[in-house]
Structures are given as C-alpha cells and as structure tokens.
Amino acid sequence: MKDITISVKRQKTELKWLLASFCTAFLLNILSIIMYATSWDESYSQLLWVLAITVILYAVSIGFRLLFYAIKKLF
After folding, report:
1. In the chain, beta strands by DSSP E
2. What is the pTM for the complete model shown?
3. Which CA distances in Å does 49 have to 43, 44, 54, 55?
4. The pLDDT of residue 49
C-alpha cells in the first residue's frame, strides 16, 4: 500500500485557509454582538458555534477550490 505524503507547502496553505475561515467566523460573531447589542461575554461563550461556522466555511472553500481546479484542468 502506498503512503500518501502531503508537502509542507500544502500544509501551510491549508492552515492559512483554516485560519482565514476562523477569522471570518470570529468577525461575524463580533459583528453580531455589535448589531444585537449583547454582552461581550458572548465572544468566548459562543466559541463552539464559531468553530462550527469555521468548519462550514472551510468546507465551502474546499468545494470552491476543487471546482476552480476542475474547471482549470478542463480548459
């Protein structure tokens, strides 16, 4: 059985995408706190939801990147 190796460059790229997803989700949380004038305690008490949104955003970004790669390969 072949071993699958992931290059360091690819790992760094994926970590950057994951960090961007987390920052986006966290900024959405801060925006909702400001818009609904709730307590700032929610910035850390709602961290589980932020992580869930991070995973969703990361999955969507993977989908778009795979779609872009497929279209690029097609043409």
Report:
1. none
2. 0.86
3. 10, 10, 8, 10
4. 97
| CB hemisphere CA count around 55 (13 angstroms) | 5
Token output for 62:
């993977």
- Residue 59: how many other CB atoms lie within 10 Å: 11
Q: Measuring CA to CA, which residue among 49, 46, 57, 45 is closest to residue 19? A: 57
Are 50 and 26 in contact by the 8 Å Cβ rule? The answer is yes
Is the model's pLDDT at 1 over the cut of 80?
A: no
Query: What is the rounded distance in angstroms from the CA atom of residue 75 to the CA atom of residue 73?
Result: 6
User: Amino acid letter at 40?
Assistant: W
Q: What are 22's two structure tokens?
A: 């987390």
Tokens of 35: 């818009």
